[in-house]
Every structure is written in structure tokens, then in C-alpha cells.
Design a protein that fits this description.
Chain A is α+β, with helices and mostly antiparallel strands and 395 residues long. Chain A has ten helices and 19 strands. The chains are: A alpha+beta (395), B alpha+beta (150).
Chain lengths: 395, 150
């Protein structure tokens, strides 16, 4: 059980120094198995459901995830749109009011510094959500660049929403549960759109239709003093079967939806094109080429000249591919790539994985093996998402 | 055996003493495997502490009958959605049986880690290796330090 010891040590080592979200009492009350994740004490699961059952519950009903560890930021000032575009690949100019996109901060080599959600609100600010694990590099990066812009006479300010709650409600029963308790018309709130409203009488909740599970869902940004109240009221709902879910289910669900985990599946050394995320590089930005690493990224895109590519892998039986395992061509025994995330899929009952492979092996249907050391297991390149997504989009 | 006993009674007594102390008593590794030996055949499994850490086990890989294993060898793996973990041999020997029930019902390891969820049986090479393992009391103490670390 060696691996277990390593996992445990890595997860728990910094617990003494770990921060807590505004929902820590809720986690403890419902038996959250707490581990240290991205500097926060977070639940991997709760006593009532295993990770597998919690994942399946989310796909059938609806689950609450505490994602308050993520960094929420407002960017204000008249130059805010040009500012955020200078650091990311998004077309924020072209966004409608109260809508947003998934984007990436890029580095000069075209690699990904972090992925983020940018919402263009109808107020005088942009709303950003970035990864907890990247706070220490994202925040100084934003602050330094904003200072440079101001030194050049531009108008842009960064304001973090410290300790504000962020509660994700994910699953097909979300709208039924939430609509009864909010003044926001959810039938008019499409995927990647945002509104401010009351939820369970709590004022000034920002409800954004997005998530990290592939299901219909929202993330609710809420006053930290009311976050526990919000979660308790959701759990009491008679309009759906609402349960708490932890990081374990969140990871399995995002993998089934083919979504990247920063640090595993994307990092400073992978470009959006290699990561199969070309869609985050907005059309207009491919022409303007005014973001870090733009030339390399657009060259890869136009010439299809990427050396490696993020793909989905599936295997029917045997051990599951896991992060860092090598991939090998069985014919010539050459290494052709490596796994970046993998687990037995709770929904499919098959092993699924995200991997980077050489261009020559990235076509759908290509077969090769995962090397476990003593054993090997055949895998096949398949389309992602592994489980069809169920986003609320209006035509 | 009786012949040997008569010839070298002291060795015989020591042998019996070992047999009595080890027979049926569960022994543990610091990697959270257990073994119970009866009549020279050990039954191997993983502890409830290990299954709690892993969560619902969805796949198990077991050594085939006839496999010769050395103490400390990786003899397969258990996997949950969350993680995979190698299972190491607590003692050396030859595999005589694997728990085929687990192939369809790996959840038995969570439900009954010390009984129905056993992994494999092996004919021990040397029962003396058992002395290097932890007894229940020692394992419980060791578990406490692991829990404290967490």
C-alpha cells in the first residue's frame, strides 16, 4: 500500500497551515473527510456517499460542491477589457453583457499560466474566477500588470473578493431546486451567463450558469456569512434530491466531462492547441495576436504543427491508467506519451484517462498500451467528453 | 516430524512454540496488509484502515495460483475511483488460491476486509518471517501514529 502512504502524506502534510473556507463547519457537521488541497482544508467526500455513488448522484439528481477556495476577483476601470485581453486569449470586447467564457492566461512560450472564467457583467467590472492552486502566481501577476498599465496612464484596478463563498450546485435537478428559491429567471439564464439576485432571501448572490461536472449547474457567489445558510437551505429542498459532494466526485465528474485540471492536464509547458483547447483562442485574437505567446500559438493552429496533443483514452477492463504512467506503442516499444489524469469512470464502468501523445498517435481509434511496469493495458483514443455534457444552452 | 522431535527435542519445542504463537493470529505490515497463517498456509488481505483510505474498491488485481512471491514483492493492486495502490506480500511463498469472488464483487474488500475480502492464499516458505511482522497491538499503535501524521 505504498502509493496510499504517499497520497496521504501529500494530501495531509500542510494541514496545520491550511486555510479554511466559510463552509468549514458544514463540512465537519456532515462528516466531510478533510484533506489539504491547494492550501485549503477541503472535503474529498462525506460519510453518506462513496466517491462513486456521489458522482452517480450528481448525474441523476443534484449535488452541492464548496468551491470557495477558488479566487474571485473584480477588475474595474475603463480599460478593464483591454487589460484582461492583454493577458488572455478571450474576446471580451465581443462578449454580450452578463456573459462570459473559459479562457487561459498564457506565457511568452505560449504555455498556460492558468485557466479562468471571465464574466463581463452589466456593472462596471469584470468578474474572474481563477484556480486556488494558482493564487500565488495569478494575483501578483494581475497586480503587477495592472500597476504597469496605471503607470502608462490607463485606468484598471484589481479587487479580490477575499473569503467570499462560492457554492456550485450541479446536476439535472438544479433548476427545479433553485428556481423555487430565487428571483432570477433560470429559464433565461443560459450556460456561461450570470445574474445577480436573491437566493433563499439572501441578497446579492451572483448566480453564474457554469460548472465543472458536464451537467447543467450554477455557481453561486455569496456573502461568506450566509454561505452555510445557503447550503443548509439547499439540502432541505423538497424540489430535488440534494446532497453534498466533495473533491473526489468533482475530479471524477470533470474527467468524465473531458475537462482539464490545471497542474495535471495543462500547465506552463502546454499550449492551448496542444491541450486541444483551440476554442479558447478567440477568432479576433488570432488576428490581433496581442496576447503573450500569440505567435507560437497561432502558428501551431494554422500549420497544425503541434508536437503533442491532449487526447481521451478508454479501456474496458484491468487497471486504470493514472497520472504520470507512460504510454507505449506495442509494435516498436517506443514511448509515445504519458497519462495526465485517469480513473475508473463511475458512470461508464470503464477506465478513462486524459493523456498527451505524439501527433502520430493522436487520431481517434488509435490503440496502444499503458505501461504499469509489470503489466500493460491496452487503451484506445476516443472523443471527449467521455460522458455527454448536459449544458443549458438556448438556440 | 516425530523422528526429528526425538532426535533434537530442543529444536522441536521451539518449533512448536512458534507454531502455537503464530497459528491463527493476524499479523500486519506497515503498508497495511494482513496475513493469518494456519497449517503453513497464509491468507492475505488489506486492513480496514487501508480500505477506509482508498474508499470504494472498484477493481482488484490478484496473483495467479502457482506464482512464487518474495516478501515485499508487489503482488497486485487495489483501485478505487480516487486512487490505485499496490499490494505487497507480507511473507514469501507460493500462491495456492486467489479470491475469485472479488473479480465480480470487489466491494467485498470494503464490506469485510478481514474476512470475506481476503485477496489470496499462499504456502509459506518460512514461518520465521512472521516474527518480523506486527501483531495486532503493535499495528494499532502504528496506525495511531499514521493517523496523527494525517
Amino acid at each position: 500500500m505504498n502509493r496510499l502512504a504517499i497520497v496521504a502524506r501529500r494530501c495531509f502534510s500542510a494541514k496545520a497551515a491550511a486555510k479554511q473556507t466559510c463552509l468549514i463547519d458544514v463540512h465537519k457537521k456532515y462528516g466531510g473527510k478533510l484533506v489539504e488541497f491547494a492550501g485549503y482544508e477541503m472535503p474529498t467526500q462525506y460519510t453518506d456517499l462513496s466517491i462513486k455513488d456521489s458522482s452517480i448522484h450528481t448525474r441523476k439528481h443534484v449535488s452541492i460542491f464548496d468551491v470557495s477556495h477558488m479566487l474571485q476577483t473584480h477588475i474595474t476601470g475603463t480599460d478593464r477589457v483591454a487589460f484582461i485581453e492583454s493577458l488572455t486569449t478571450a474576446d471580451v470586447q465581443g462578449l454580450g453583457e452578463n456573459s462570459g467564457v473559459l479562457s487561459v492566461f498564457t506565457n511568452e512560450k505560449g504555455g498556460i499560466k492558468d485557466d479562468l472564467i471571465i464574466m463581463k457583467t452589466d456593472k462596471d467590472f469584470l468578474f474572474l474566477v481563477t484556480n486556488a492552486g494558482c493564487i500565488e502566481k495569478d494575483l501578483p501577476y494581475l497586480l503587477e500588470n495592472a500597476a504597469k498599465w496605471r503607470a502608462n496612464g490607463k485606468d484598471v484596478q484589481i479587487q479580490t473578493l477575499d473569503n467570499r463563498g462560492l457554492v456550485a450546485l450541479q446536476g439535472p435537478e438544479m433548476a427545479k431546486v433553485l428556481q423555487a428559491e430565487t428571483d432570477i429567471d433560470l429559464s433565461k439564464l443560459s450556460f456561461m451567463h450570470t445574474q445577480i439576485g436573491k437566493v433563499f432571501g439572501i441578497e446579492n448572490c451572483r448566480v453564474t450558469r457554469c460548472g465543472y461536472t458536464g451537467e447543467d449547474g450554477v455557481e453561486i457567489s455569496v456573502d461568506p456569512k450566509r454561505a452555510s445558510d445557503l447550503v443548509e437551505r439547499l439540502l432541505e429542498s423538497k424540489n430535488g434530491n440534494v446532497k453534498l459532494a466533495g473533491l473526489g466526485a468533482r475530479d471524477a465528474l470533470r474527467l468524465e466531462a473531458g475537462l482539464c485540471l490545471y497542474g495535471n492536464d495543462i500547465d506552463e509547458n502546454t499550449t492551448p492547441i496542444e491541450a486541444n483547447l483551440a476554442f479558447v483562442v478567440a477568432k479576433r485574437r488570432r488576428e490581433t495576436l496581442d496576447f503573450p505567446g500569440a505567435e507560437k500559438i497561432v502558428k501551431q493552429l494554422k500549420e497544425k504543427s503541434w508536437p503533442k496533443r491532449r487526447v481521451g483514452l478508454i479501456s474496458g477492463s484491468g487497471r486504470s491508467p493514472r497520472s504520470h504512467l507512460p504510454l507505449i506503442d506495442p509494435l516498436d516499444k517506443c514511448s509515445i506519451g504519458f497519462v495526465t489524469s485517469g480513473c475508473p469512470s463511475p458512470t461508464l464502468n470503464k477506465n478513462i484517462a486524459i493523456a498527451y501523445v505524439d501527433k502520430s498517435h493522436s487520431k481517434i481509434g488509435t490503440k496502444f498500451v499503458v505501461d504499469f511496469g509489470a503489466k500493460q493495458q491496452q487503451v484506445e483514443v476516443v472523443k471527449m467528453p467521455f460522458v455527454p455534457t448536459n449544458y443549458f444552452t438556448q438556440k | 516430524m516425530s523422528l526429528l522431535c526425538r532426535a533434537i527435542p530442543t529444536v522441536c519445542f521451539r518449533h512448536i512454540a512458534v507454531r502455537f504463537s503464530s497459528s491463527g493470529a493476524r499479523k500486519y505490515t506497515k503498508k497495511h496488509e494482513w496475513v493469518v497463517v494456519e497449517n503453513g498456509v497464509g491468507t492475505v488481505g488489506i486492513t480496514d484502515f487501508a480500505t477506509e483510505q482508498l474508499g470504494d474498491i472498484v477493481y482488484v488485481e490478484l496473483p495467479d495460483e502457482g506464482t512464487e512471491i518474495e516478501k515485499g514483492d508487489s503482488t497486485g493492486a487495489v483501485e478505487s475511483v480516487k486512487a490505485a495502490s499496490d499490494v505487497y506480500a507480507p511473507v514469501s511463498g507460493t500462491v495456492t488460491e486467489k479470491n475469485v469472488k472479488l473479480e465480480d464483487e470487489s466491494g467485498l474488500i470494503n464490506k469485510s476486509p478481514l474476512e470475506k475480502g481476503w485477496l489470496y492464499k499462499l504456502k509459506l516458505k518460512s514461518e520465521e518471517e512472521l516474527a518480523q511482522l506486527l501483531n495486532e497491538e503493535q499495528y494499532n499503535e502504528f496506525k495511531k501514529t499514521e493517523e496523527a501524521d494525517h
